[in-house]
Amino acid sequence: MRLPVFFVSLAASAALAQQCPEDLVRYFSQRNEPFSPGAYEYPYQRIPEDCRTYKVPAIERVINEAKNNTIADPDLHWLFANTWPSTVDTTVKWTGYSADNPKEELAFIITGDINAMWMRDSSNQLQSYKAVLSSSDDKVAKLFRGAINLQARYMRRSPYCNAFQPPPESGIPPTFDHADGDVVKPEYDPDFVFECKYEIDSLAAFLQLSYDYYHATDDAAFFAEFSWKEAVRSILDVSKGLMEGTYAEDGSINASPYTWARKSTASTETVANKGTGEPVNGNIGLVRSFFRPSDDSCIFQYFIPGNMMLARYLKATADIMDTIDEGMATEMRDMATGIEDAIEEHAIVQHPKFGKVYAYEVNGFGSHSLMDDANLPSLLSIPHLGFKGNDDPIYKNTRDFVLSRWNPYFAYGPVINATGGPHLGPGNGWPMGVITQILTSDDDDEIVGGIRQLMGSTSGLGLMHETVNSHDETVWTRPWFAWTNGLFGQMILDLADRKPHLLKKSYQ
Ligand SMILES: *[C@@H]1O[C@H](CO)[C@@H](O)[C@H](O)[C@H]1NC(C)=O
Ligand SMILES: *[C@@H]1O[C@H](CO)[C@@H](O)[C@H](O)[C@H]1NC(C)=O
């Protein structure tokens, strides 16, 4: 519709709003002008400034400064500028204050193409801005606090769930297309919860987000202000309940604190034994998970990377709890130590080619699954999680295994060599897998090879995708996946720190 000129000038904001892309999935599936000056000719995929959901001057400053001083290759810089701001540009759906306490900040951050807030995705989406989070009074700090408070609300009320609806304060209506028909115990309120797959790393993600904020700002006082402690209480209680095994001492069956059932033709969207899963040997120190960070169901419920992540962040956030409740801080450290010991005892297995490696999943009876999936937390990401360094001998064996054709979910071919997973099936590599490989590598050739793979597998769209077919660059998934975009930026900033000379190279 053409508006009369005088009307446009009077209604400047309405005119600007008109230029905002309505359908971001479609927008990010097309090549938007202008194009990068190098051989890759990436499109410019940031949405117009006035359409962005949350503006952070510090992020713009880092992008601009990187162009002059840090990243020599014009295409690589362009890709960084397209990807890193994805979360703030497109997914901060709402920020505001709690109806219960006008001082309590809230931030509702969606995953991208789905209108819901995942515990895992939102924690990782924000982690990509940790580099620009330094004091408790900037815009990034506000976003972290808002997300921590909202996650704490989710965690207190529905601690088994993975993805959540907008808070009522936002006025954004909930959506119900995803989990309709799921039969879940304990029951949940669908106006509050978007999907209720219990995943151990959702618990750990809340702690990771808390730690990232605390580590960057030293602001321990914030955690005593609202209900953070009660959210951690939920995490400890849920974890304890899920350390119990299938059988009681006398052989009777323990009631599972959580069960999940869905009608599906995919085995990764069902849970064996009437929604309780494969039997597990109980009270060995490991915490069960029903689903993986891919949202696929576990084969064996002691999901090892998730247990590693939980142990690491229980310890890290016990330092915060010291200032609030010493008894609980001790409980957190004890649980973490118990998990660590159990990993040593139950999760290290002998591989016929690689020697001692960490299993992906175990059941505590001696059965295990040897594989890796690209979604974080993964085995490949152990040093990124901070559980063990990349010089740990068992990690090194595990890494060699994961990045080889012995990993049943390693996708390889002319387009990408990367870990994948059953979520989108064999033969599809995840850019997130390559990014994790770079984040955990000290080897210049490996890092340069990884950057080239990432630059060469965007299907001309200049963004990170969820998966790319290892033999066909035009076959890929999810045009608007904020988590991996952010992680690519995080990787660039990490390299600027650790390996600055690799960003001074040309990648043409
Ligand atoms: C980058 O370099 C250009 C041209 O030399 C200069 O005009 C600009 O101020 C510089 N920007 C930053 C952020 O250093
Ligand atoms: C993947 O690895 C194979 C060797 O195993 C190599 O020939 C191929 O070029 C690699 N693909 C990419 C995208 O680097």
TrEMBL record:
Keywords: Signal. The keyword Signal applies. This is Uncharacterized protein. GO terms for molecular function: catalytic activity. InterPro entries: 6-hairpin_glycosidase_sf (IPR008928), 6hp_glycosidase-like_sf (IPR012341), GH125 (IPR008313). It comes from Hapsidospora chrysogenum (strain ATCC 11550 / CBS 779.69 / DSM 880 / IAM 14645 / JCM 23072 / IMI 49137) (Acremonium chrysogenum). GO terms for biological process: carbohydrate metabolic process. SMART domains: DUF1237. It comes from the Eukaryota. Residues 1-17 form the signal peptide. The keyword Kinase does not apply.
